[in-house]
Specification:
single chain, alpha+beta, Butyryl-Coa Dehydrogenase, subunit A, domain 1, Butyryl-CoA Dehydrogenase, subunit A, domain 2, 3 domains, 7-stranded mixed β-sheet, binds flavin-adenine dinucleotide
Length: 374
């Protein structure tokens, strides 16, 4: 069974307190105004949250950090998770020595940001087969053309890791496209109901020229990304545990403060039932993720196990925040009381990194030997 060593326990406690004291309340106005909190992101960098993927942390410690960031603010946990799992992870595992030297130092301190650009306007769940963005070799350059949708940090990142199909061999490959390249445009997607701090963008790539050496040498076919994409599914499970701990914290405190019929809500049996169910869901999610961390550390985590963890924990998270929302009555509708923020954020966890349905179908395929979706 995975467990934290004493130095990780100390670091965990310090990070948890810092996140509750310095990030949780400070993030709320940014969420409400859909703005990017540069200062808070730099603070997370100073706490070492930009380098969890490469600093020797155990899988359990890394996961618990994602949970605690989510407990403070789910948007920032999305940023930290995508940054570690999909940007730092891809460049560290699949990049050239020059790419690592150029990008990793700034990424580790969160003073440089990357965006992971896979989803397209017409292809989400079927992206692996349907991806339309193209890469064409032209002398010493690649020319990238196409469109991407929902790309986190797209308007604020220094570069995007763009997945495009090489027209020469039909393979999907990973390319580093710096945001100041001519022909690259990022347009912020507004009016989201969740993860409002994450600056999701529509990207337009109009014949963008990049040097040949911007291809990730380890990412010359989509199958090279399988392990990283498996781990990034699992990462959402830690977020789902964190959002439920936040829902519990808020619901419990509200139930103790708010009085009806001359008593605190906490005295009513039906309210205690809801608190018990939220805590039970959060604990079940955490227990599942601790098991995932053990499998990761042993090198045994399978895609279907990651998909099951992602699907199950996000289903529980959706139930937990709905109970929390109801427990706060009318005040559960206002983001001034935090629960409504979690209610919107949970919807994103349910859908991104493979929707609930697609992850369930991955499990279904594993347990029947029959694919229902390809
Ligand atoms: C806030 C947010 C942040 C995101 N960040 C990023 C990012 O940084 N980078 C990135 O590349 N992408 C990102 N995404 C995209 C995300 O991964 C996709 O939204 C997700 O994969 C679903 O794709 P879709 O939205 O196109 O839905 P669709 O694929 O159109 O699916 C619509 C519905 O149909 C269901 N469905 C589809 N096919 C089947 C089937 N065969 N059987 C049963 N049901 C099916 C789905 O489950 C879903 O309920 C983000 C999305 C959001 C909302």
């Amino acid at each position: 069974m995975a467990c934290l060593d004493p130095s990780e326990q100390k670091r965990y406690r310090h990070a948890r307190d810092f996140l509750q004291e310095s990030i949780r309340a400070a993030s709320i106005p940014f969420w409400e105004q859909e703005e990017f909190p540069v200062g808070l992101v730099r603070e997370l960098g100073r706490q070492g949250l930009g380098e969890l993927q490469v600093d020797g942390s155990s899988a359990l410690f890394k996961g618990l950090m994602y949970t605690e960031v989510a407990r403070a603010d789910v948007s920032l946990s999305a940023l930290v998770g995508i940054h570690n799992e999909l940007i730092v992870g891809m460049i560290n595992d699949l990049g050239s020595p020059e790419q690592k030297e150029r990008w990793l130092p700034g990424l580790r301190s969160l003073s440089v940001l990357g965006a992971f650009a896979l989803t397209e306007p017409q292809h989400g769940s079927d992206i692996a087969g349907g991806l339309e963005t193209t890469a064409r070799g032209d002398g010493a350059e690649w020319i990238i053309s196409g469109a991407k949708r929902w790309i986190g940090s797209g308007t604020v990142a220094d570069f995007s890791l763009v997945w495009a199909r090489d027209i020469a061999d039909g393979q999907i490959k990973g390319f580093i496209v710096e945001s100041d390249r001519p022909g690259f445009t990022a347009t912020k997607i507004r009016h989201k109901i969740g993860l409002r701090i994450v600056q999701n963008a529509d990207l337009d790539l109009d014949e963008v020229r990049i040097p040949r050496e911007n291809l990730l040498p380890g990412a010359t076919s989509f199958s090279a990304t399988t392990n990283l994409l498996r781990d990034s599914r699992a990462w959402v499970g830690w977020q789902a545990a964190g959002i439920q701990l936040a829902a519990f914290d808020i619901a419990r405190s509200y139930a103790l403060d708010r009085h009806q019929f001359g008593k605190p809500l906490a005295r009513f049996q039906l309210v205690q039932l809801q608190l018990s169910e939220i805590l039970g869901n959060a604990s079940a999610s955490l227990a599942m993720m601790v098991r995932v961390a053990s499998l990761q550390e042993a090198g045994h985590l399978q895609m279907a196990q990651a998909a099951m963890a992602k699907a199950t924990t996000t289903r529980l998270a959706r139930q937990s925040v709905a109970m929390g929302r109801s427990l706060l009555g009318g005040n559960g509708i206002s983001t001034d009381f935090e629960m409504a923020k979690l209610f919107g954020d949970a919807e994103v966890l349910y859908t991104y990194e493979g929707s609930y349905e697609i992850n369930s179908l991955i499990v279904g395929r594993a347990v029947t030997g029959k694919s229902a979706f390809v």
